[in-house]
Amino acid sequence: MLKTYFPILDWGRRYDRQAFGSDLIAALIVTIMLIPQSLAYALLAGLPPEVGLYASILPLIAYAIFGTSSALAVGPVAVVSLMTAAAVGRLAAEGTADYASAAIVLALLSGGMLALMGLFRLGFIANFLSHPVISGFITASGLIIATSQIGGLLGIKADGHALPDLVTSILSNLGHINLYTLAIGALSLGLLLWIRLDLKNWLDRFGVAKGVAKIVVRAGPVFVIALTMTLSVVFDLGGKGVALVGDVPQGLPILAIPGISLDMIEALALPALIISIVGFVESISVAQTLAAKRRERIEPNQELIALGASNLAAGIGGGYPVTGGFARSVVNFDAGAATPAAGAFTAIGIAGATLLLTPFLAVLPKATLSATIVIAVLTLVDFGMLKRAWAYSRADFAAVAATIAGTLLLGVEVGILLGVGTSILVFLYRSSKPHAAIVGKVPGTEHYRNVKRHAVETVPGVLSIRVDESLYFANARYLEDLIYNQVASNPEVTDVVLMCSAINAVDMSALESLEAIRVQLGDMGVRLHLSEVKGPVMDRLVGTEFLEHLSGRVYLSQHQAMQALVAEPSRQHEPA
Amino acid sequence: MLKTYFPILDWGRRYDRQAFGSDLIAALIVTIMLIPQSLAYALLAGLPPEVGLYASILPLIAYAIFGTSSALAVGPVAVVSLMTAAAVGRLAAEGTADYASAAIVLALLSGGMLALMGLFRLGFIANFLSHPVISGFITASGLIIATSQIGGLLGIKADGHALPDLVTSILSNLGHINLYTLAIGALSLGLLLWIRLDLKNWLDRFGVAKGVAKIVVRAGPVFVIALTMTLSVVFDLGGKGVALVGDVPQGLPILAIPGISLDMIEALALPALIISIVGFVESISVAQTLAAKRRERIEPNQELIALGASNLAAGIGGGYPVTGGFARSVVNFDAGAATPAAGAFTAIGIAGATLLLTPFLAVLPKATLSATIVIAVLTLVDFGMLKRAWAYSRADFAAVAATIAGTLLLGVEVGILLGVGTSILVFLYRSSKPHAAIVGKVPGTEHYRNVKRHAVETVPGVLSIRVDESLYFANARYLEDLIYNQVASNPEVTDVVLMCSAINAVDMSALESLEAIRVQLGDMGVRLHLSEVKGPVMDRLVGTEFLEHLSGRVYLSQHQAMQALVAEPSRQHEPA
C-alpha cells in the first residue's frame, strides 16, 4: 500500500552499486543539458533566469520519491513556460514581485490539482486531450515561442503570447534593432545549430571516442553560454545596449510560500488546470514511450501524484510549473538512468551549478538564451500532422486545425480548449448520425454483412438492419426515422430484425425511441425482432416495457433469427 | 421545392368544405381554451395580460403557412413564459416599457435562430436535449411556476425565478396576505380543479350530450374568469387591495419592431438559443406524437422554419416567444383539426376576443390568472421520472437529477445547460471505459460470445477480445492497457484476435494506439489479427502503417479467423 504511493520504497530497497553508477553518469549529462535550458525557459516564462534553476532542484527530488518512471526528467519545459507567461501576464507586469509570486501560485495550484486528480484516480480526464490536439498544440506553441524569441535575438521588444500581437510588436519595433545583440544572437544560433547538426560528425572525424563525443555535444550549449559571457565582458556589450541577464540573487532559493489571495486563485484556476493536463499528457507519453522500450509499467494515477508533488515542490522552492520534458528524458534514458535516483542526483548537480553560476550570470546576454530556446523548440514544430490528419479523417483534421489556428491566433488556453471542444463535438456529431446497413448472409457461412459491400443472401419480407452505434439521446430520433423510412418504403416487409452487434449501450432516450419504433411497427403490422444483443445491453432491457411487449423475439445470433423466420409456416410458400 | 418551404401550397390545394368544417369547430374550442391561458402566461412572463393575446394571433397564422403538423397549436406556453421572465428580468424591471421591448427582441432573436437552424438543417442540435433532461426540466419548471403563483394567490410579492429566491420572498411577505385576494384565489383554484376533475361526470349525470359536455368543460376557465370579474365589480375588490389587471390598451396590437441595441442582443442571445431549443423540442415531440396517430409525417427542419416564422411574427405583433403547446394541441387534435388552417381560424377567434375583451380586463383579479397557471402547470410535474431513471441507469438518473436540482436552485438556463452538460459528460465518460469481453464459440454455431456469460469453446494460445465501443481518443489508452494486461497475464498466448464487430469508428488517436499495440505485441512475439472489421472502418485503415505491418491477418468473420488459426501446423499437436 505504502509502496504504491511511494515507489521509492520499492526500487530503493533493490538499489545497488551498479544502478548508482548508471544514475550518476546520467545525472551528470542531464545536468549539463538542463543548465542552459532552465535559464532560457525561465526567460521565456517572463521570469528571472535563476527561477529556472530553482525549478530544476526540488521538483526533481519530489519526482524521485513519487515517480514510477526510471527515465523521466522533470523541470521547466518550453510549452509550459509559454503557458505560464500567458497566464501570469494577465495578472501582473513582467519583472515585478507580483509576477514571480503569481508564477509560484500557479505551480502550487497545478501541483494541488494534479495530486488530487491522482488520489481520486481521475487520470482518464487527460484522455480527452487527443493525440491530434496535443500534437497541433505543441506545433503552434513552438511557432509562437520561436517568434517571441525573434525580439531577443534582435534586441527589440516582442510583446504578446499569440501570433498577431507578437508580429505587430516585432514589426513596429524593427527600427530599434541593436546590431551587437544581433551579432551575439546570430553567433549563438549558428553555434548551437552547428553543435546539434554537425559537431558529432566532426568529432568522429577527429577520432574522438563515441562516448566522449556524445558528452561534448550535450555540453555544447554550456560552452556557448561561457563564450558569450566572455565576449560580453571583453567587449563591454552591456554598455553597447545589449540586454544582459543582470544581477541575480546568489545562492539557493529560500523555501517560502507567497501570500495567496482568493482573487489570484480564481484568476489562475483555469490556466492551472490546463497547464496540469497538458503537462501530464506530455509527461506520461514520454514516460510510456521510454518504459515500453524496457518492458516497464508506468502507473498513470501515481504519475499524477508525482507530477503534483513536483509542482508543489516547485512552488515551495521559488520556481514555476514543471513537467516531464521530452528531450531531457530521452537523454536521461540514453545515458543509462536506471532509477528515479538519477533525477535526485541531477537536482544536486543543478543546486551546485546554481551556487557556482549565479555570481557570473549578470553578464550573460539574453540573446544567447533566446537562441537556446529557438533551437530547442523548432523540433516541436510538425505541420506534417495537418497533412496526416487530412489524409486519415476530416474529423481529426478539424481538431488539429482548430487547435493550431486557435493557439496561434487566440493564445494557448483558447487554442487547447478549442481543440478539445472540437474533437468532442465532432465525435458527438458523428455518433448522432450513425452508419447503418441492411445485412444479408455471406453464402456458405453464418455471417451477415452489408448488402451494399458483399454478395449476400436475403429473405424476402425480412428486413435485417445493423445500426453501427450505441443508441443514445443524440441519435435516438435518427434511429426512429431510419427504421420508419426503411419499412415505409418496403411495403412487403413483415419482419424487421435489428442486429445489435454494434450497439454497446442503450440509454433512456433511446429506449423511448425503441418503444416508439415498436408501437409504430406494430401499427403497420410489422414484427420487430432483436439479434446479437450484448450482455450488458440485455441486462438493461430486461424488465422494460419495450422488451415485454416486443412483437417478435430476441435471438442469440442473426443466423438463428433468420433460420427461425424462414422456417415459419407463413413463409414456406414464398420464393426463397 | 416551394411546397417544401410553404406546406400550405400543398394542403391548401386539397382544402375542401369538410376540412373547413372540422377546422372551424376545432378553432372555436381552442380559442375558448387559449383566452385564459394567454392572459395567465403573459402574467407569468411578467408582461401585461394583453401581450399573451397578441402572442396568440400572428404566430398562429405564420404557423399555418409554414407548419407541417395538422394539429399543433402554437402560442404562449408555461415553460417558455418562465424562461422569458428569467431572461428579460435581468435586463429591465417588470412593468417598464424596456421590459416589454426586451421580450419582443427575445421573440425576434429566437425566431431568427430557429429559422436559420431550419434553413441550414441543424435540427439535430435539438437531439442533444435528451428525454430525461427535458422531462426533468419541465418538472422543475412546473414546480417553480406553481411556487411563483403562491404570491398571486395570497396577494403578496413573490420575486425570483428559482426556488430559493421565491421561497425567501414568499416567507418574508407572509405577513401581508390580503384576505380578499386569498378568497378569490381559493375560489378560482377550487372551481378550476372541480371543472377539470369532476364537471364532466357531473354533466354526464345530468344527461348532457358528450360533445356539449366536452365544450362546456373546455370553456370552464372562461366562466371562472367571468365570475371573478363580476365579483370584482360587485364587491369593489380593487378598493379592498385585491390586485387587478388594470387598464390595458384596447384593440389589436400595432405592428412594430422596437429599437434593438447590440447590448440587448448580446445579453439575450444565449437565453434566446436555449428558449429556441427547448421550445422546438417540446413542440416537435407533441407534433410527432399526434402525427403518428394519423400516420402523418412531420418534417423537423421545416418545423424549425415554421416555429421561427411564428416567433418572428410574435415579435412583430407585440408578443413574446411562443411554441407548440402540449395541452392545446391535444385539444385541437381531439376536436378534429384537419389542417393547419384550424390555427389560422383560432387566430381570428383570439383577435375577436381581444377586441371584445380588452375593455373589461381591467377588473379581472390577478389571483384568478394565478389559479389558472397553477392548475395548468401541475400536470407538468412528474417526479416519477427520477425513479424510472434510477431504475434504468445511473447515467440517466444523473442527468435528470442535475437538471432538476440545477433548475430549481439556480434557474432555468443554468438548469438546462447543467442537464445537457451532464448527459454529454456521462456519455463520454462511459465510452472512455468501454466494456470488453473475451469471446469463444457457442457450440454448434459459428457465433462467438463472452466467455463469462455463455458456455463457449476457446482455443488455447488464441486470445479473442471483443471491444464494445468505437475506438477514439477518450478510450485509446484504455485499449492499450487492456490488451497489454491481458497478454502479459497469459504467457501461453501466441495470437490475439481483435473482434471488431462493435467498433464503429477508429480515429487517429486510436490508430496510434493500435499501432502501439501492434508494436508491443510484436516485441512479445504475439501476432495480432482482426476480425469482422466493418466496411467504413476498413476503408480508413487501408493504407495505414498499422494495417500494412500487421503481423497477423484481417478475417471476414471471427469464425474464419478461428478456423484458420486452428488449422495452422504449429497448433496441430496441441490439445484442442
UniProtKB/TrEMBL annotation, chains A, B:
InterPro entries: SLC26A/SulP_dom, SLC26A/SulP_fam, STAS_dom, STAS_dom_sf. The keyword Transmembrane helix applies. The keyword Transmembrane applies. PROSITE patterns: STAS (PS50801). It is a multi-pass membrane protein. Keywords: Membrane, Transmembrane, Transmembrane helix. GO terms for cellular component: membrane. This is Sulfate permease. It is found in: Membrane. It comes from Paradevosia tibetensis. One of its GO terms (biological process) is transmembrane transport. The lineage of its organism: Bacteria, Pseudomonadati, Pseudomonadota, Alphaproteobacteria, Hyphomicrobiales. It comes from the Bacteria. Its main location: membrane. The chain crosses the membrane at residues 20-45, 99-120, 132-156, 176-195, 215-235, 268-292, 304-322, 342-364, 371-391, 397-428.
